[in-house]
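hey so i finally got around to running the thing on that chain from the lab meeting. sorry it took forever, my laptop kept dying and i had to restart like 3 times. anyway pasting the input first so we r on the same page abt which one it is
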Amino acid sequence: MPDLSPPLGALLASAPPDLSDAEAMALARLHFGLEAEPKRLTSERDLNLLLRDAKGAGYVLKIANRAEPHAVTTFQTEALLHLESTAPDLCVPRVLRTLDGATEVTLADGSLLRVLTYLEGTPLHLAPRSGPQRRAMGRVLADLSRALASFTHPAAEQDLLWDIRHAARLRPLLPSCPDPASRDLSLRCLDIFEAEVAPLLPTLPWQVVHNDLNPHNVLVDPQNPDAVAGVLDFGDMVRTARVCDLAVAAAYQIDPEDALGSLTAFVAGYHEAYPLLPEEVDVLFDLTATRMITTIGIASSRAASHPENAPYILRNFPAARTGLQALTALPRDAARRALRQTCGME
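ok and heres what got predicted. didnt touch it at all, straight out
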């Protein structure tokens, strides 16, 4: 089995691939027969370019970070192929084949090149939010998770820093947080996670999950923002406790003005389509907070190391900080009861 466990944070510490637009377009032409105008897309780890051909069709040319093992990149590609064959109605990117039918190209420096279809829509972080939208997003994530439940791959066992079951590792990163109040609150939540949540995770249902349904990875219909138009970025997929995936997504659904209502709306949509176990519901509140401190810890540390890319790296930091404050202001036991009631368990 290939080595899937680079040193902690090695991938996050490696700069994205450096390739000129002309070089990238030459590769697109050679391997995919694409003639298109390139536009750089912001990415924390990989090189991503939006290509539009003469007919207006959009594609994303992706060159994986050199620190990412090939097996991990292939894991992402094969997951999309699995979804294409088993859940064709899901609004996710499709893999474009090369002129000779391959799904990936190994470049001279060892990097892997892929091209995916480009999904149209309004990024969620630019759209108005609502309860019906949160419920719809819960259903979409449930449909995606249910489709991935039958997918396996050796690289699914990768050691991923963003997998919140490893949240205890974040302790050394939290001193980088520029906000002392957020740092102290994060440490208290981490104590709860280590003592009460982490020991239960091995006993819960596990599967391959998307693991990064943040507002930059979701598209909605411009004419109807309550309708989800696409799910992007499968780069953080991993096999972990299923409820961790729900907690990751829930962390970005918290409305500080109605923390509990926004959380329960999202969870209700998920549970309707892919029912949760009572044991999963009982840890969801704390896991949602854990995702927020994961964002705070990793983003703070990474931005300090890469100030030139700090605006992109810190894009989710303000929401995580505000959301964590709002979530932890709720009485913990009452919030857990409300989640049980939402799922018809009380």
